Amino acid sequence: MRLKNKSALITGGTSGIGLATARLFIAEGARVAVTGRDATVFERVKAELGENALVLKGDVRSIEDMRAIAAEVKEQFGGLDVLFANAGRAFPSAVDDIDEGLYNEIMDINVKGVVFTLQAVLPDLREGASVILNTSFVAQTGQHGISLTAAAKAAVRSLARSWSYEFLDRKIRFNAIAPGAMDTPLISRWGMSDEWVRDRKAEFAKAIPVGYMGKAEDVAYAALYLASDESSYVVGTELVVDGGASQL
Ligand SMILES: NC(=O)c1ccc[n+]([C@@H]2O[C@H](COP(=O)([O-])OP(=O)(O)OC[C@H]3O[C@@H](n4cnc5c(N)ncnc54)[C@H](OP(=O)(O)O)[C@@H]3O)[C@@H](O)[C@H]2O)c1
């Protein structure tokens, strides 16, 4: 029970990495609030996570939504030991195809969302809390055709460093996790055919040194380490979980 008596908030916790992390945190003794926009999945998520989970509706791009979520979490949990700012979106696009709508969406979900999620819960983070920001392997190296998402995630990686300094006095630790190409529903949200998704996944797998895409649980275990007191001397870093893609 590595998170016994701890409480956590996971944004984007109704699918993929966030949901796998919620499952693991609860198994390790935590109470967990997860958020998402699509309420049609909430009953299924509640049933899966059980009585130690709160499932809350909100868009990380909305400051009002994040304040309302923070108020609900405060009322239910009293305070927070762990924040996993996980909600995010990746979308491939050549520079010529970036329009203002896509720019705003990628930057708002990935960067604005993280800034105002933290701001909303800041008063409720307990001394010694762990904050984990979800970045991406695409910001580790130059990548073709995904510059906007990579830039957004690079900004988030920078926030983990700056905030680590800013909250040293409250003993709040900030770290990032950079997932590689993980087999989650993320890529299916790009509106492409099942065949296209299957082909892309096969391409991703071929390009990864270990030869296969990661699972959401691979990132969840990294999040568990950063959330737990076992990582109490780990501050401002980024843990890369990508099957060697950016390192070998
Ligand atoms: N999968 C990968 O290969 C990969 C690689 C590197 C980094 N990552 C990062 O890992 C994180 C999780 O990705 P995933 O693969 O688990 O994706 P996923 O399965 O698509 O899950 C995304 C989660 O975020 C929520 N979400 C999306 N936009 C939101 C918004 N505006 N406000 C609130 N919640 C929102 C989704 O719920 P709703 O849609 O209902 O809101 C869902 O719960 C993201 O930050 C992503 O960039 C993933």
List descriptors:
single chain, about 250 residues, alpha/beta, Rossmann fold, 7-stranded parallel β-sheet, 7 strands, about 40% helix, about 15% strand, globular, binds NADP nicotinamide-adenine-dinucleotide phosphate
Entry summary:
It contains 7 helices and 7 strands; from the N terminus they run βαβαβαβαβαβααβ.
What can you tell me about this protein's structure?
With 248 residues, this protein is an alpha/beta fold. The protein has a single domain (7-180, 217-241), classed as Rossmann fold, CATH 3.40.50. The protein is built from 7 helices and 7 strands; from the N terminus they run βαβαβαβαβαβααβ. The chain has helices spanning 16-27, 42-49, 63-77, 100-121, 147-166, 194-207, 216-227; strands spanning 7-10, 31-36, 53-57, 80-85, 125-134, 173-179, 238-241. The chain has a 7-stranded parallel beta sheet with strand order 3-2-1-4-5-6-7, with helices on both faces. The longest helix has 22 residues, at 100-121. The two termini are 34 Å apart. The mean pLDDT is 97. NADP nicotinamide-adenine-dinucleotide phosphate binds at residues 11-18, 35-38, 59-61, 86-90, 109, 134, 136-137, 179, 181-182, 184-186, 189. NADP nicotinamide-adenine-dinucleotide phosphate binds next to helix 1 and strand 2.
